[in-house]
Amino acid sequence: MDIKNKTWSLGGLLLGLLLGILLRSCVSCGGTAANGTDDDSEGDAVWTCSMDPQVKQPHPGKCPKCGMDLIKMEKGMTPASDIDPDAVMMSDEAMALANVETEIVGTPSGNKEIRLFGKVEPDQRQQQSQSAYVAGRIERLFINAVGDHVAKGQTLAVIYSPELYTAGQELVSALGTSQQVLVDAATEKLRLLNIPQSQIDEVISTRKVSPYVQLKANTSGTVVRKMVEQGDYVRQGQSLLQIANLSRVWAIFQAYESDLPFIHRGQQVQFTAEALPGETFTGHVSFIDPVLNGQTRTAGVRVELPNTGGRFKPEMLLVGNVAASMQKYADEGVIIPKSAVLWTGRRSVVYVKDDVEQQPTFLLRQVTLGPALPDGYVVLDGLAEGEEIVTNGVFAIDAAAQLDGKRSMMNQ
Q1: Which residue, 141, 169, 173, 290, has most beta carbons within 10 Å?
Q2: Which residues are CB-contacts of 101 (< 8 A; sequence separation ≥ 6)?
Q3: Given this model, what pLDDT does residue 150 score?
Q4: CA neighbor of 57 nearest in space, from 72, 37, 38, 67
């Protein structure tokens, strides 16, 4: 029994060994043929990642960085050995996925349209405050409301003033002493209180003093501000009314600091007023505020206007437009879209396309920006006319550079 089992075991072993040799021979033949075919067709092929062309393998598979299927690199896509080590290469598939767009930069041309918003204000040089020369109570007020017109010398109010009464009594007392020095001093005190000479002469002749004084208008114009009411007590020097001559007014527009380099004195401004629809007015810049508003980051731009018939009223809203020529920037730099610029806080960078390589290749470059345009910037240094830069998908290219440890906006 044992001898018989050993015989069968030895026979099975010999038969398995023979079958293994035969199978190996067949596989070897088939494998050699297959490998020979593969070597002929793909022996020199290279597989790369469509999102990261820096990944290269001699066989298909998954990208070790992003897990995407590797694609076969076409002939001519292999970069030259002397390529800049900081260059970012992308395949056509990656360009499409990241929606990368490029544009050739050019020099400034045409005009920059600047939109301004403002309002009408009185001409400050033709505006005066009407103040009280004596302390007291406003017994009568002849100005009813803002907008009233007054003429120079017109009586605006009557003030009851104990101070005035005391000063008049001092003059009467001085007249009783027959000392001209005291009379002159008391008279001068009344003059300093802006008492008319006629009223002083009346005190001298009648020896009677009145506690009332009339407040006269010191200019002609329109009341633009009223600070008191009849019956109010006022202090000496307190402002009661503000009077402005509105025959000329100012149009004050607010310009953002980014637009100030394009606005200058003498420049024409076209504007419209909401209260005067269908009409367009023209003026010229006469003054630009030298100090910015710290909250709005704007500066006032003044246009002086004649106001025949009083059509322009203070606080009237205006919308202006300035056409600034870009010709003076033609010799200073080129224009690029705002979407092409990456800000790093202290510097600005763009990605420039390298046309030497067949595969899309981009290099980071720092630039110096000039004035801002509605949709772009003037580049003063770092780019030349005719160069091609990335205008869309810049962050995708920069992200690829960061992943590969190359120069980027964050580690430059």
Answers
A1: 141
A2: 390, 391, 392, 393
A3: 92
A4: 72
